[in-house]
């Protein structure tokens, strides 16, 4: 197995003449938690959407374990083990937490309705779903209606559903967005835990999260990679500091406190 699990070569996305992602070449190491950061409008979301195949690149290539996946569709890369964390809108709010994880598993297995309705299959799926809930510390919420879950716990459910698809590479889009301090702490610890034996690439604004758990960080600015390295390295880089100072999103400094 190569050490680099995901690589982009000169990845570029233009929107009607505007270059949102400009010749980005990334290398994500196997086993790492890798963050994509940058001030507002830097191109993080666009880059993420290219990697998850929600957008087609204007130029450049994407390789997963050395295989060119540039032309593949989201479902095809999911089968290869690249799983994007599902937004919570993808779950059924009126079903229980356990039922949602079970449905996620059933989808991943691709089993037919009649097959998974059999009691034996259902019990097996229930056992696996409970194990996944235990992994994200949601066991005590198994019978809770999903709509009633506290916000931070919904992200944990999202991660459990993602784990059910047995990701080799997990892609997380701002996993702590909109959370209070306590939830940020819990979800950060959870990401660290589930990263064991996997690789995680995430877009994240919260520098406390990035500095706490990420092995490597790529900083984007105006669509291009400005700097790359450990948090200690990039947070000291004068160009990175300047990029954040010149932006309304100057929370890079906040992480030092
Ligand atoms: N569909 C689109 N059509 C035209 N321009 C777009 C489109 N999507 C993004 N852009 C532009 O590309 C640039 C990068 O946007 P993107 O959302 O990728 O940045 P970001 O780093 O994720 O920002 P934020 O931190 O604010 O979410 C922005 O100037 C944005 O206006």
TrEMBL record:
Pfam families noted in UniProt: ABC_tran (PF00005), BCA_ABC_TP_C (PF12399)
Keyword Protein biosynthesis listed: no
InterPro entries: AAA+_ATPase, ABC_AA/LPS_Transport, ABC_transporter-like_ATP-bd, BCA_ABC_TP_C, P-loop_NTPase
Domain ABC transporter: 6-247
GO molecular function, one term: ATP binding
Keyword Manganese belongs to the record: no
Record keywords, A-Z: ATP-binding, Cell membrane, Membrane, Nucleotide-binding, Transport
Protein name: ABC transporter ATP-binding protein
Naturally occurring in which organism (per UniProt): Telluria mixta
């Amino acid at each position: 197995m190569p050490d680099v699990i995901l690589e982009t070569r000169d990845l570029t996305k233009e929107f009607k003449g505007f270059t949102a992602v400009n010749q980005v070449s990334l290398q994500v190491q196997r086993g790492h938690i890798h963050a994509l950061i940058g001030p507002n409008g830097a191109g993080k979301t666009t880059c993420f959407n290219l990697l998850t195949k929600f957008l087609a690149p204007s130029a450049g290539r994407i390789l997963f374990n050395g295989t060119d996946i540039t032309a593949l569709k989201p479902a095809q890369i999911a089968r290869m083990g690249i799983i994007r964390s599902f937004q919570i809108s993808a779950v059924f709010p009126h079903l229980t937490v356990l039922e949602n994880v079970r449905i996620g598993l059933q989808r991943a297995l691709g089993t037919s309705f009649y097959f998974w309705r059999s009691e034996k299959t259902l019990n097996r799926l229930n056992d696996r779903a409970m194990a996944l809930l235990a992994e994200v510390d949601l066991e005590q919420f198994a019978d809770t209606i999903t709509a009633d879950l506290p916000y931070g716990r919904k992200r944990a459910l999202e991660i459990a559903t993602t784990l059910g698809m047995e990701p080799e590479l997990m892609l997380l889009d701002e996993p702590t967005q909109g959370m209070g301090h306590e939830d940020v702490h819990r979800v950060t610890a959870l990401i660290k835990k589930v990263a064991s034996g996997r690789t995680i690439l995430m877009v994240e604004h919260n520098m406390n999260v990035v500095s706490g758990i990420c092995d490597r960080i790529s900083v984007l600015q105006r669509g291009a990679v400005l700097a790359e390295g450990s948090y200690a390295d990039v947070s000291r880089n004068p160009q990175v500091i300047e990029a954040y100072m010149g932006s309304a999103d100057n929370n890079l400094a906040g992480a030092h406190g």
